[in-house]
Amino acid sequence: MLRPLRILAWPVVLGIVLASGMGCPPYTPPNYLPVFLFTPESLDFGKDTDSLTLKVAKNYTQQPLPEFTVDNGGTDWLDVDPKTGNSTGPEDAAKFTVTVDRTKMAAGPNFANVVISAPGVADQLVPVTATALLVADFSAAPLLVTVNENVQFTDESAVAPGENPIISWKWTFGDGKQSTLQNPKHKYKNPGTYSVTLTVASIDNMDTAVRQNYITVEAAEGPDADFIGEPTNPPANTPVSFTDMSFAGDKAKDIESWFWTFGDTATSTAQNPMHTYTNVGQFTVSLTVTNSNGASDTETKIDYIDVQPVGPTASFSAAPRNATIGQMVNFTDLSDPGTSPILSWLWTFGDGGSSNLQNPSHVYNAAGSYSVYLSVVTLVGADSETKTNYITVTP
After folding, report:
1. How far apart are CA 193 and CA 212, in angstroms?
2. Alpha carbons 382 and 386: distance in angstroms, whole number
3. Are 376 and 311 in contact (CB under 8 A)?
4. How many angstroms separate the CA atoms of 12 and 205, rounded?
């Protein structure tokens, strides 16, 4: 029942009654200041009640009561509906529904106040008590991640003193995946915003915590593949050094794999490989890199390596080099043709004789020392070698 404010003493009341019996004017309330009357005097939600009714009225006075507000006093687990009301007297009480949200409470007894206030009227505090036996709660880090980056989820649930401990956990991560670990890690495969739910249970209690739009997943940025090669115009059979110049991406720590194709069917998984081209021509080089987030990128450079043809290198030998007059000396071509076959040979033996054979034989008819010359020609170019006083002829 409403708690009225006593404002009249018994002698005054008796005087009013006698005066009324003698035909005096009707009694009017005294001009006291308005005071809030409320019932019940406190709100105890216990362990399982979620809603209670609070009645608020004005004391018995002719002073008008301004519209008043009833709020939760800044307590997030407490709610009042409606938020405003009015009253003309003790028999005209406004009703308010007060509810509690145990998912926002701390485990155990929780205390707060409902505040009744209006301009010019003294505030009234209605004590509120509610007990949460089991409260689900959790956190995660980081809340902003890229695709395939781990999120660490941490259970922060609690039970009231003396209650049975939590024995099960069920996480739903918002992407169709679940876990029953207490503190799981999870990777999101697609960009988006995800709500996370944790349900915990003891032998006799259960509670659920929900974080709406809690985890934001961005597309993995990068990597950006790039490379250089030196030289880019090598002669055939000359090693080319390739250097990785790729960028891992802002959200990745580093690049974890490389795959090169050199355009001549050869490949490599080294970061900075060397490769030798044996054939003349232009070759397209490609590099694919993958960073620690699993994102990949490919850089392709068309006709990047232009392998140049190589001309011949003339060389020869002879046996015997110390011959007698009339003895046959055999000459052997040792030339390197380069990238094109040798088309012609020209020998001069130093005594006026010559030959166009690849491996000729020659007989010297006079004693002396003779210089030998060989010139070879390919489609790419020509080269020659002269060996001075190479053959010695004795009588």
Report:
1. 9
2. 14
3. no
4. 59
Structure tokens at 57: 């009225």
Query: How many residues are given for the chain?
Result: 395
Amino acid at 209: A
Contact between residue 106 and residue 137 where contact means Cβ atoms under 8 Å apart: no
Structure confidence at residue 383 (pLDDT): 95
pLDDT of residue 309: 94
Task: Tokens for 223, please give them.
Answer: 């990597």
Strand duo 255-261 + 267-268: pairing: antiparallel
Contact indicator for 259, 267 with CB cutoff of 8 Å: yes
Give which of 96, 102, 186, 91 is closest to 136, Cα–Cα.
102
Q: Is 76 exposed, middle or buried (0-12, 13-18, 19+ CB in 10 A)?
A: exposed
What stretches in the chain show pLDDT beneath 50? Answer: 1-23
**Which tens digit of pLDDT belongs to each residue from 61-77?**
888 899 999 999 999 99
Per-residue pLDDT, 293: 76
CA distances from 2 to 60, 62, 90, 126, 366 (A): 12, 18, 7, 13, 149
Q: What integer pLDDT is reported at residue 291 of this predicted model? A: 86
Residue 291 has which token pair?
Answer: 């960073």
